[in-house]
Amino acid sequence: MSQPDNAVIRTKDLTKIFKDFWGRPRVKAVDNLTLEITKGEVFGLLGPNGSGKSTTLKMLLGLLFPTGGKIAILGKPVSNVAIKQRIGFLPEESYLYGYLTAQETLEFYGKLFDIPAKERKKRTDKLLDMVGLGRVGQRPVREFSKGMTRRLGLAQALINDPDLIFLDEPTSGLDPIGTRQIKDLIIELKNNGKTILLCSHLLADVEDVCDRIAILYGGKIKVCGKVGDLLKKHDALYVNLPQLKQSTIDAIKKIISDSENNAKITVEHPTDRLENFFLKIVQQAVDDKEETSGADVIRQDKSSAQSKADKPADPQINKEIIKKLLNKKD
Amino acid sequence: MKSIAAIANKTLLKAMHDKFFIGVILFFLVVLPSLPVVLYGDGTTEGHLKLYISYSMHFVIFFLSLLTIFMGCASINEELEKKQMFTVITKPVHRWQVVCGHWLGVTLISGLLLIAAGSINYAGVLYILSQHKDTITEEEKTVIEENLLTARAVVTPEQPDTRELIEKELKNYRKEHPDEDIDYDQVVKQIKQNLFYSMYCVPQRHEKLFKFTGLNKVTADTLNIRFKYYSSSKPGDATITARWIFGDPEKVYPVRLLSEKTPEVYHTIKIPASVIDTEGNLSIKFINYDEEYLTVIFPEQNGIEVMYRTHTFTINFLKGYLLIFFQLIVLSALGVMFSSFLSFPVAVIMTLFVYAIGSQAVSVLQILGSVSDSSFTLIELRKEEPLTFFTVAQKILGAFIRLFPQFDKINPVSYLTDGRAIDSKLIAWGLGVLVLLKGACILALGSIIFQKKEIAKVII
Ligand SMILES: Nc1ncnc2c1ncn2[C@@H]1O[C@H](COP(=O)(O)OP(=O)(O)OP(=O)(O)O)[C@@H](O)[C@H]1O
Ligand SMILES: [Mg+2]
User: Fold this and answer.
1) Which residues have C-beta under 5 Å from ligand 2, the single-atom ion?
2) How far apart are CA B359 and CA A169, in angstroms?
3) Same domain for B240 and B102?
4) In the predicted model, is pLDDT for residue B103 greater than 80?
5) B382 Cβ partners below 8 Å, 6+ apart?
6) Which of A89, B69, B80, B295 has a C-alpha 20 to 30 A away from that of B30?
7) What is the pLDDT at residue B104?
8) Which residues of B touch A109 (CB under 8 A)?
């Protein structure tokens, strides 16, 4: 822990084993996780269902006690209550109080931060506006839709203007506009020097906002690094262009194929790229017969439908589809 | 502090939005005001009042205790189950503050309900009085004012340490009969008998002096002397004639009376408070003046007592409700403590268990003999008892029960139905021992348990 200023989150060999009633180890949810997240970074934690993302977050927040390993948050142990003053957290589901109104909810959390009444009122109104709940502030949360609850959960996480923000699947249940807004918000927060640790399944979103990512499988980090570095393919080029007319695209294709000796060209949206990378990492882990207590993301049998190859998000995906997607040569 | 208040406030909001809770409260607030109409007693004003006060207060205590237990037992665990605790614990809040916040919230709700219940209860007393306004006799009115709607302190005469006396007598006996092989039990029995006779029996033409102390604070003008005695044989004229001298003639101007009262029932004599001397002492001389040859026997305890008015019924009533509040404070602490690591049904069972034992604690301790009792029949001499399994178990059980909050000690109902003053010592005991010591210990225990709790773990 030499540079507490730089490393906002530091874990060393963090392990969590869930035991059953008799104390017998049952699930190894997080396995020797060593991680360092520096100030101002947006860090994405990826992984299939049950790979230990939420468990990691919960340990970093003191909601679960590690079975082994060390954690330092803002240079202090998790049990330090004072550091919570600078932390914001949005859990995997927004577990809010149904009987409180949106306004009362933020008021309540504001009080927990000992924010003076005037300031609290100001921030409450501002945050409600920001997450688009300005007009429903007086309605009880139990009447809210999932997305509305999610938005309020996010507002709750920002009530103290935190320096370090934990977001567990922030965009789940949100409409596309909401998703967009949250992404913009994350980028804005980052520009204000905040550190964000984010779990998400929406790889496109992660790719858009994260500086670095780690992919978990069975509680272990499979890969960790800068998004750009990880995704850089040296045998291909990527040109970022606005939406083009079909004729322009055809023209470009022609130019390239003429001058580059019939080089293979694909035109696709950039969002597909992390998706491919993610699937590759997970597939690797499955191929290596790594242990996981989480869900079987990729079915091992090859008999299932291959016709859905163009839909990578389909849970029925199998090895063949992945191979196709990754354009593997073998 | 603000976080405790915020959590408490949230508990209040939760209760206000809970339909079941509101329904139960409405039921309570409908039943309670109907009690003065429903309960009628024996038709007399006193009977009506007594029945109402006793019944309604028992109802309030029982109902609000249960409600407090339920609220307490559904506090922390509910937030753990619904995972709302995730967003609370990740704020700069100490876990003990969460425990205290829930406790404060439940206690506040109970307190508010108790204020409502007390107001209704008191209005009920006034209502009953107004109902009987036209039919009540002057005599009945004074009886009620002096015995029921009042707060009287009760002073019992000084009692010598009987155990010591017996031990002294036994020592004397040993000295006088050094060579004899003493039949221990037989001698003690004899000594007890003699002592009892000299202390409580008054043969014909004999007298007995009762000494009362600590009456300095009497402000009332009159004292009520309440007594009961037995007769060695049934008196022919059904009554026993006795002469009384109230006050030490050397210090005050005494009051002399001749009474003819039946044995075996309580009687009250009213005398002026001027018979108390300047040091707050009062001696009462009783002379068996009956024509027949019989012995008057005073019961060991409560044979004679001096009663005087200390404050009004209203104040006593308020004190009584304060005692109930103490109980609710401790029950809510218990409920919240158990809710920090048990599911609702289990927490309720545990709290009810403590509540049940606590409501019997004083009587159980008396049965176990760990409370000193001046009753002759119960006195055992301090001989070196061998430690048997039974005595050890008894001691452990006694110590265990002492840990429980002794709710029966602060039950105010009998005080109010007997017009007995709830003295400040009892209030101080309730506040000091029950609330500040045991209540705080319970909350501290809850905080320690909750501190060790993994919030995100599924509760069993
Ligand atoms: N309280 C718990 N008790 C027992 N096992 C648990 C508990 N919480 C999580 N687990 C197990 O730990 C593993 C990791 O769970 P975790 O919630 O961290 O996954 P995740 O990566 O967040 O998944 P998802 O993408 O579905 O949110 C899973 O196998 C899960 O069953
Ligand atoms: Mg999760």
Assistant:
1) A 54, 92
2) 51
3) no
4) yes
5) B163, B167
6) B69
7) 97
8) 87, 91
* CA nearest neighbour of A55 among A16, A24, A95: A16
Domain boundary among B311, B329, B354: B311
Measure the CA–CA gap between A172 and A178, rounded to whole angstroms: 10
User: What residue ranges line ligand 1, CB within 6 angstroms?
Assistant: A 18, 27, 29, 47, 49-55, 92, 293-294; B 456-458
Distance of CA A310 from the midpoint of ligand 1 (Å):
30
Q: Average pLDDT, whole number, for chain A? A: 81
The CATH number of the domain covering residues in A4-231: 3.40.50.300
Residues of chain A contacting B, Cβ within 8 Å: 21, 58, 61-65, 81-82, 84-85, 87, 89, 91, 93, 95-97, 99-100, 104, 108-109, 111-114, 140, 153, 156, 160
Considering the domain architecture, whether residues B325 and B304 belong to the same structural domain is answered as no
- The answer to whether residues B139 and B196 belong to one domain is no
Report the number of distinct structural domains present in chain B: 2
Q: Which residue of B5, B9, B86 is in closest CB contact with A91?
A: B86
User: Which residue stretches of A170-327 are H helix?
Assistant: 176-191, 203-209, 227-231, 246-259, 272-287, 319-326
Instruction: Give the structural domain span for B325.
Output: 2-150+312-452
Q: What is the distance between the alpha carbons of residues A315 and A318, in angstroms, rounded to a whole number?
A: 9
DSSP annotation of B239: -
Which ligand has the shortest distance to the CA of B458?
1
The pLDDT tens digits for B306-358 are 989 888 999 999 999 999 999 999 999 999 999 999 999 999 999 999 999 99
CA angle A150, A53, B99 (to 5 degrees): 65
Which chain A residue shows the shortest CA-CA distance from B7?
A108
Instruction: Quote the minimal CA–CA distance from B106 to chain A in Å.
Output: 17
Of B291, B311, B331, the position where a domain reaches its end is B311
- Beta-carbon contacts of A248 under 8 Å, excluding residues fewer than 6 positions away, are none
Do B441 and B340 sit in the same domain of this protein?
yes
Identify all chain A residues contacting B82, using CB atoms and an 8 Å cutoff.
95
Can you tell me the ipTM of this complex?
0.79
Neighbours of B313 (CB within 10 A): 21
According to the model, what pLDDT value does residue A318 have? 46
B33 and B114 both lie in a single domain? yes
CATH number at residue B242: 2.60.120
A 10 A CB-CB count for A232 gives: 10
On the CB side of B305, how many CA atoms lie within 13 Å of its CA? 14
| B156 within domain boundaries | no
Model pTM score:
0.82
Q: Is residue B155 part of a domain?
A: no
Residue B32: inside a domain: yes
Q: What is the pLDDT of residue A234?
A: 60
- Do residue B357 and residue B266 come from a single domain? no
Q: Do A111 and B2 touch (CB under 8 A)?
A: yes
What is the pLDDT, as a whole number, of residue B369? 65
β-strand partners of A33 = A14
pLDDT in tens, A71-111: 999 999 999 999 999 999 999 888 999 999 999 999 999 99
Q: Identify whether B137 is part of a domain.
A: yes
pLDDT band at B36 (very low <50, low <70, confident <90, very high): confident
Q: Please give the distance, rounded to the nearest whole angstrom, from the Cα atom of residue B86 to the centre of ligand 2.
A: 14
Whether residue B6 and residue A84 make contact (CB cut-off 8 A), yes or no, is no
Minimum CA distance residue for ligand 1 atom 24: A49
Does residue B202 share a domain with residue B126? no
pLDDT in tens, A140-192: 999 999 889 999 999 999 999 999 999 999 888 888 888 888 888 899 999 99
Contact A109 B456 (CB under 8 A): no
Atom 18 of ligand 1, nearest CA residue: A52
CB atoms A93 and B17 under 8 Å: no
Task: Decide if A213 contacts A227 (C-beta within 8 A).
Answer: yes
Name the closest residue on chain B to residue A58, using Cα atoms: B456
Question: What residue segments make up the domains of chain A, in order of their start?
Answer: 4-231
Q: Are residues B194 and B284 in the same domain?
A: yes
